[in-house]
Amino acid sequence: MTDWTDPDTFAQALEQVETKEKGNCFEDFEEGDIIEHDPGLTLTQFGNEQWMGQTLNHDPAYWRTDAAEARGFEEPPVHPDYLTAATLGITVEDLSEKGGYFLGRTDVRFPGTPVYTGTELHVESEVVNRATSSSRPEYGIVSWRTRGKDAETGEVLCSYERTNMIPRRDPVATDGSGTAAAEEDDEPELPEEFITPEGGYFEDFVAALEEADDENAAVAYRHERGRTQDDVTVASLPLATLNTAKQHHNVDVMSDSPSGDIVTYGDVTRSTALGHARSDEQTWREVGFDDESFHTFVAVGDTVYAFTRVLEAEDDASSDEAGTVTFEHIAFNQDDEPVYSGTRTAEIRKRSN
Ligand SMILES: CC(C)(COP(=O)(O)OP(=O)(O)OC[C@H]1O[C@@H](n2cnc3c(N)ncnc32)[C@H](O)[C@@H]1OP(=O)(O)O)[C@@H](O)C(=O)NCCC(=O)NCCSC(=O)C[C@H](O)C(=O)O
Prior knowledge:
Residues 167-193 are annotated as: Disordered. Helices cover 25% and strands 31% of the residues. By secondary structure, the chain is α+β, with helices and mostly antiparallel strands.
């Protein structure tokens, strides 16, 4: 009788059988398709705290009841970064498990927040755009509008539009115009002076912007903290959001990819950088995120740092205790290479209250 576990026999069998594939290719997506994602996730206190702890999001309002109540929450809520990452994680099996790159995301909003632990998440996506990549014939570029809903009430808790490169089944001929355009580099134009706000309250950002307005200056500074990526941040955190992208947990497959190794989930990279930035401000509420881009890979051993530019401040918020500030945050690695950038609008506490 044939011993199927004999290494030579098994190698032959493996060569001849079909692989039951996971995920979808570019050709499988049509504009207007609605995809109901089967996986679901209960937003637990453990999941929330594991995410926040590992990404250095240590704002007490998300950890302690008295601090939560002082900020108008009933109890420590689910952190918006964990909610965003969990909403995306659930979609990966259908949208991006095949591989490819998470390029960016915009219009990240939280219409149903605050969200409390114990909420069950049900997620759906709509294909809003599919395009040929002019630089990479083996990929297409797909954008989806995704909505993470309270499974019980149907209320939308988190919504955004995300764009990925998705492998094609059949590569196409391209004109390479994307590559040519990328080579046209503008001369960098930096201001003469960089101003750092004195503190982390709304008034500090207003004062710094006013000072910058009088001069050829920008309100821009770096944050001291860094977080070196390890097995927990690279493999465990995405799996805890049901993110099945092989980029984060299959070293065997990834050894043969451009990064040569598993890479950090984009949401871990950005949340870590945002955690560094938030540790230097008095956050009241997160409002939204736009124009997020992932510029290069982050892998085990890389360290994620953060840089902030303050764009505007407006004395208008959901509470008299805060004003609204728009930031550009740039995450960068130990070689000072930008790995993520995006704008963030957040309500920031006023000092006078
Ligand atoms: C992906 C890269 C390797 C590409 O780099 P580069 O070769 O320099 O090309 P371009 O920057 O010109 O971009 C290539 C094409 O993609 C389009 N693009 C780029 N960004 C966006 C965006 N935000 N929205 C829409 N389209 C975008 C460009 O226009 C180009 O188009 P074309 O010319 O027609 O081809 C490099 O950027 C890279 O390595 N990025 C890092 C990717 C990454 O690490 N992402 C996070 C980790 S992976 C992940 O989290 C997966 C996740 O779990 C999931 O499942 O989504």
